[in-house]
Amino acid sequence: MAKGPSVVAESKKIIIANPALKVEDICLQLREHHGIENPSASTVSTVRADLLQTLTILKEMGGLNIEMVQAPEKKTPKPKQLSRPEQWSDAISRGQDAISDLRSLQEEYQEWLDNLPENMQESETANKLQEVVDLAFEDAETNFDEADGIDLPRGFGRD
User: Fold this and answer.
1) Nearest alpha-carbon partner for 66 in 145, 148, 9, 123
2) Tens of pLDDT along 126-146?
3) Residue ranges making up the domain that contains 33
């Protein structure tokens, strides 16, 4: 859960770490402290401007030294590297999905061809549509099925 700004006082010096200037932080504060579930962009902008103005005024007041410091962003962990068999399976799945998408599109082209007016039956458009409709995806599907059925090596003497 995101936290609001944290303030540390050091002998008349105030350090504000991570001032709530990000949209998501402001939205969280409005939701948690003011019950505003979905603040508008103008509300968030107004709150941000008010916060910056307040910090500026405090800084300009005599005797206080305010410093705004952004804490370093948290590093996002690298995604887990898939093993070769997982990559293989993932690639097959993407390929099968692509073939399915192509078949669906091919049906739409077939419908377009079927509904061409009679005066366009011999046109360049009709020829191009026929080319798409005549494509055979059976070989590709067979190759994906065969690839999916292969017993892949496990390596490191585990075969």
Assistant:
1) 9
2) 999 999 999 998 888 899 899
3) 6-69
